[in-house]
Amino acid sequence: MTAALAASPASSASSTSTTHIVWDWNGTLLHDIDAVITATNGSFAELGLPPITLATYRDLYVVPVPKFYERLMGRLPTEAEWAVMDEAFHRHYWAAAENAGLAEGVRELLRDWQRDGLTQSLLSLAPHDRLVPLVRSHGIDGHFLRVDGRTGPSHTSKAGHLVRHLAALEETGVTAARTVLIGDAVDDASAARHVGARAVLYTGGSHSRSSLESAGVPVVDTLADAVRTARELAE
Questions:
Q1: Is the pLDDT assigned to residue 8 strictly greater than 50?
Q2: Geometric angle at alpha carbon 43, from 184 and 72, rounded to 5°
Q3: What distance in Å separates the CA atoms of residue 166 and residue 155, rounded to the nearest whole number?
Q4: Residues 134-161, mean pLDDT to the nearest whole number
């Protein structure tokens, strides 16, 4: 992965003594759950599978995504089925995502964190070439030291991507021990644990509260609470 966005002057004063937030994008900063459900059911329809509700999605969703389909289908999809579903999901998702907005309070939270002299970055499993212009279009790119999206196959978890993301931030003084990942999926907590960072999970995205609580990390209902908790975790 390569750095997509340059750090702003206020973001460049990172230090190993301060908290760094790694933000997730889909379902966290971007409130796109409606687009996700539309895309999921669109991809299911192409294989003759019945649609699912938001509640079912949140109860069963897991990363890597083929395991999610296994929970729904009772078996892992074949390679041919996965290829159809993956292509269909992204086709439907990017059409629907044009209407998705930022989660409540995101602009203020990013601005205030940066104003306090603290650093933040963004790491997503959304395709890198799609992610970067979308972040820019919302006008929040200047708040991040770095923005990384996924390169490579889509049936992956975040752990390896987080390793590379933090390695690229080493020269800014960011360390895993002072990093808190804020996301909406159990996979976010697993990735944080893998690198020795902490995590806070937000209920506004892909998982139900009960699913998130299984990760054994703080679970919150607002991103404002996520930021407050991140401050406390790294103290």
A1: no
A2: 65
A3: 21
A4: 92
What values do phi and psi take at 188, rounded to 5? -65, -40
Angle between helices 33-45 and 79-96 (to 10 degrees): 140
| Identity of the residue numbered 143 | H
Any alpha helices (H) in 97-222, and if so which ranges? 106-115, 128-137, 159-169, 186-195, 209-213
Question: How confident is the prediction for the chain on average, in pLDDT?
Answer: 90
Pairing of strands 30-31, 198-202: unpaired
The span from the CA of 67 to the CA of 232, in Å, is 33
Rounded to 10 deg, the angle between the 65-73 and 79-96 helix axes is 110
Q: Mind listing the pLDDT tens digit for each residue in 172-231?
A: 999 999 999 999 999 999 999 999 999 999 999 999 999 999 999 999 999 999 999 999
Structure tokens at 196: 């020795």
pLDDT bracket for residue 65 (50, 70, 90): confident
Cα angle, residue 181 at apex, residues 176 and 187 outer, rounded to 5°: 110
- The CA-atom distances, in angstroms, between 229 and each of 19, 115, 128, 140, 178 are 11, 18, 28, 22, 13
* DSSP labels, 127-149: EHHHHHHHHHHTT-GGG-S-EEE
**What are the backbone angles phi and psi of residue 16, rounded to the nearest 5°?**
-70, -10
